[in-house]
Design brief:
The protein has 314 residues and is of the alpha/beta class. Strands 1, 2, 3, 4, 5, 6, 7, 10, 11 and 12 form a 10-stranded mixed β-sheet that branches. The protein is globular and about 60 Å long. It has 8 helices and 12 strands. It has 2 domains: 215 residues, Spore Coat Polysaccharide Biosynthesis Protein SpsA, Chain A (Alpha-Beta Complex); 73 residues. The C terminus is likely disordered.
Length: 314
């Protein structure tokens, strides 16, 4: 069987979600694809489940144990094993409609080669409420993004394919050819802002991303259960990563506006003065401190062409 598409899913102790995602993948009308499950938790239950699928005759599924180097590192490892012309990145807590992959692959074949990414319409669970249909800047003067359509009821308002600046990491498909022009993700990011960083690099190279709203993905949201302390740390990492990608991908004036106005004034000083969610202000301060302390590591170890660096942040 010729492999046309590769599905890559990075999981961390998400056995239930992996089972549900795999079930939806097995029901796809498009058949010429493989599934690479990258297990950052090295969970024996996930390995046993993938092996059971193989014993039942579905050899499209592959299990890859991995050290926990986060969403970007796990995806880089999975993509390095992928054989498809198109690669579909999926969170484990997603579920596809039966024709999702077929629609995405078919749409790619009718688009110009400079369109490197297609983004499905991502719904919250089984509801009619949208999670995202791509991403846009919150304000043009700052390099901060938000999901398009988030928490809106789907009444067809985004059913026309459109050019987008960035996209959600829970579900997107890209041409493998993209990796001959730029790297996929920086594993040092660990969590958050990876796809926005990719989108900005694509734009600088003259490539684009479009929505494919007829392809539907259902997203559970918060599929990996974490403690409030872990959530706060992840949020601080996102702040750090947003500053790293802005520094790398935009002009100096955009970086300073994002840092001083978007991060410091609005999210630290403003929240502390008004006592409006001081916890969020502390999260932003920690993220800013992480950026200052670790920016040198990102500068010295920027990856190229999908290569995964083994250097870890302390």
């Amino acid at each position: 069987m010729k492999i046309t598409a590769s599905v890559v899913c990075v999981t961390f102790n998400s056995v239930h979600h992996v089972r549900r995602l795999a079930s939806s993948l097995q029901k796809q009308t498009f058949r010429n694809f493989e599934v690479i499950i990258v297990d950052n938790s090295r969970n024996s239950l996930i390995q046993q489940y993938v092996e059971s699928l193989q014993r039942e005759g579905d050899d499209r599924f592959m299990y890859l144990p991995n050290k926990n180097d986060g969403y970007p590192g796990g995806n880089v490892k999975g993509v390095n094993h992928a054989r498809g012309d198109f690669v579909f990145i999926l969170n484990p807590d997603t579920r596809l409609e039966e024709d999702t992959i077929e629609i995405l692959v078919s749409q790619f074949r009718h688009l110009k080669k400079d369109v490197m990414v297609l983004v499905p319409k991502i719904m919250i669970r089984d509801s009619k409420v949208i999670n995202s249909v791509g991403m846009k800047r919150v304000r043009e003067m700052e390099d901060i993004y938000m999901n398009i359509g988030f928490l809106e009821e789907d009444i067809g308002q985004y059913d026309t394919p459109q050019l987008i600046r960035a996209f959600d990491g829970s579900a997107f498909m890209f041409r493998r050819e993209l990796l001959s022009h730029t790297f996929l993700f920086d594993p040092h990011f660990f969590f958050g802002e990876e796809t926005t960083d990719l989108a900005e690099r694509m734009s600088m190279l003259g490539f684009s991303a479009y929505t494919c709203p007829n392809a539907l993905v259902h997203h559970e949201l918060r599929g990996t259960v974490t403690s409030p302390k872990q959530n706060d740390r992840m949020a601080s990492i996102i702040v750090r990563n947003s500053l790293i990608r802005t520094m790398r991908n935009t002009q100096t004036t955009m970086f300073w506006r994002t840092l001083l106005i978007g991060i410091c004034f609005r999210n630290i000083i403003g929240r502390l003065i008004t006592r409006n969610n001081s916890r969020a202000a502390i999260i932003y301060m920690r993220g800013l401190a992480m950026f200052i302390l670790q920016v040198g590591i990102f500068i010295r170890n920027k990856p190229t062409f999908g290569q995964q660096t083994e250097i870890r942040l302390k």
